[in-house]
Amino acid sequence: MLILLVLSPLFLGVSMQRTTTLATRRVLRGWFPNACTLVICAPPETEERDQGLPAVQELQGVKEDINNSEFERLETQIRDLQTQLDNLKASVIKTQQVLLTPHGVIVGKKIFKTDGTRGDYDAGRASCSHMGSTLAVPRDAAENSAIQQIVTWHNAKALLGITDMAEEDKFVDLNGSVIEYSNWAQGEPNSKGNEDCVEMHPDGKWHDRDCALDWLIICEF
Ligand SMILES: [Ca+2]
Ligand SMILES: [Ca+2]
């Protein structure tokens, strides 16, 4: 009886602590089989859980508040970054326009440019690719006119990014798509010999020619 009186505060203390684990209680019960009457004084397991629920909900609410706050902060950061990116893009385009003048021509969203490089079809493709661009392909009269300006300045004939290498008389761009705009000179294309490439003359007209010839290389950006 004396032992039980001495141990009572211990068991009561243990039962009142939420951090006491079920495993700990099982061990204590194993040590003192008769102490079950004391342990039963502790709140039943279900009662403990019920009392704990409001605290968990409160914590969950705090967690959600933090998450929402973090989400809003990230949203604001993304918007700021998007604005900075848009400004940077506009700045780059403007810089290109300045740097290209008077060596390039801007038409719509396209820029046609040459650095005076000359070469055949393979060299021309490689040269433009080296600058992160492709051979010029006029898609309409305005673009054709823009390229013609450059051709006239250089008083040369320029290579276009158009061929009928894959299928005779089927002229495609560098992506393999059949061209929808053309400005052939009278009698062209006539595929004399082996003419699978296209050149532009100073008058803006197109001629199919041998791809091994030497042309002014104009790239588009
Ligand atoms: Ca041909
Ligand atoms: Ca021809």
TrEMBL record:
Coiled coil: 71-98
PANTHER family listed in its UniProt record: C-TYPE LECTIN DOMAIN FAMILY 4 MEMBER M-LIKE, TETRANECTIN-RELATED
GO cellular component: extracellular space
Pfam families named among the record's database cross-references: Lectin_C, Surfac_D-trimer
Keyword Disulfide bond recorded: yes
PROSITE patterns linked: C_TYPE_LECTIN_1, C_TYPE_LECTIN_2
SUPFAM superfamilies: C-type lectin-like
Gene Ontology MF: a single term: carbohydrate binding
Source organism, top-level taxon: Eukaryota
GO BP annotations, alphabetical order: ossification
Domain C-type lectin: 121-220
Record key words, sorted: Coiled coil, Disulfide bond, Hydroxylation, Lectin, Secreted, Signal
Gene this chain is encoded by: LOC110083683
Signal peptide stretch: 1-16
Main subcellular localisation: secreted
Protein name as catalogued: Pulmonary surfactant-associated protein D-like
Cellular localization per UniProt: Secreted
InterPro entries the record matches: C-type_lectin-like, C-type_lectin-like/link_sf, C-type_lectin_CS, CLec_Tetranectin-domain, CTDL_fold, Surfac_D-trimer
Membrane spanning stretches: none
